[in-house]
Amino acid sequence: MGVLTEGTPLSWNEIVPICQVYRSYALSQLVKIFEKCKDYQGDSFLWGDELEFTLVHFDHSKKRVQLLLKAHEILPRLVETNKVNHDDTPSIAWHPETCDFMIEGVPCEPYGFLPSYLNTVEANMTLRRKQAQEILSEQSDCEYIINMSAFPRYGQGQFIYSSAHDDLQEVTEQSIHYPDRLISPIHPRMKDYQGDSFLWGDELEFTLVHFDHSNKRVQLLLKAHEILPRLVETNEENHNDTPSIAWHPETCDFMIEGVPCEPYGFLPCYLNTVEANMTLRRKQAQEILSEQSDCEYIINMSAFPRYGQGQFIYSSAHDDLQEVTEQSIHYPDRLISPIHPRMKQNIEYGNSAVTVHTSLDSITSNFEDSRCHPSKPEEIQI
């Protein structure tokens, strides 16, 4: 994953149409890099470190410490300082962080593989702090650069040192704890920030089980392929007062996945809707299961405790272990979902025929339809 140093990030709506293009490029490049480097041996072990510094202002008269929003001012000077080549002083690479009260410093050159390089780490860290502190001390003796995992007064009262005041009616983040002026004006991903709302969601994976009360045991229920079409159909109907749920198959036929069709919003009040949405998902699936039996349930659990232990599947069928694909007594073929796209050899998506290849030379999928698909990228130079 590369560091964005110049250019303007695309918006989500601009990214969606070209996602598959760049997935194809990435896979092709991964294969070419692997083929180029797979026989490398005996390379030296090189390593480095990264320090993230916090800028603070000490108000001695009021006995308080506040965040100092000066990263955008001192970073250009730090970069300029390290452009000058000093033979006896290692160069430091300085980068902006998302917040304007933080900067990141890393060695320009990695440490070597000899044990003696361990003795140079502390001196390099000291040099980074010294370079930044010298610039801060030119203007004030109350401004410092420190290392800490979290600023303890973050979001509490006047925790920012600045003469400006936030207009909370116009800030992008709509937050009294994270006003817009905390955002770095020089960070590549933030400088062109247009104020897109922060949207989020969740994902629940449900397990279908059958309670055998007479034998006092619980077994996995292979009915995902039966109830999923009905769940999808239920949510295709538009209910203005009920959120829609997107249901998806899992690899195993005893599991289904449910996610909200629409993401939650950025306001804190949306946190109050999560539990109700999760309850709705469980209710929709349980209602279908309860139509046929009062012994079938949908539950949430990380792992089924009796998985693979004798008669752990509720079914009247028996496996012919001589013909199963998995050749496993713990994972018989009937556990595999018959409707999961990745578990079929040939998948039809509308007019697109997708053939999945397992060899390394043809790891990407071939699409044969009228959609635009780029030619294979040329071999990259390493």
UniProtKB/TrEMBL annotation:
Its EC number is 6.3.2.2. Pathway: Sulfur metabolism; glutathione biosynthesis; glutathione from L-cysteine and L-glutamate: step 1/2. One of its GO terms (biological process) is glutathione biosynthetic process. This is Glutamate--cysteine ligase. Belongs to the glutamate--cysteine ligase type 3 family. Keywords: ATP-binding, Glutathione biosynthesis, Ligase, Nucleotide-binding. PANTHER family: GLUTAMATE CYSTEINE LIGASE, GLUTAMATE--CYSTEINE LIGASE CATALYTIC SUBUNIT. It comes from Adineta steineri. It catalyses: L-cysteine + L-glutamate + ATP = gamma-L-glutamyl-L-cysteine + ADP + phosphate + H(+). GO terms for molecular function: ATP binding; glutamate-cysteine ligase activity.
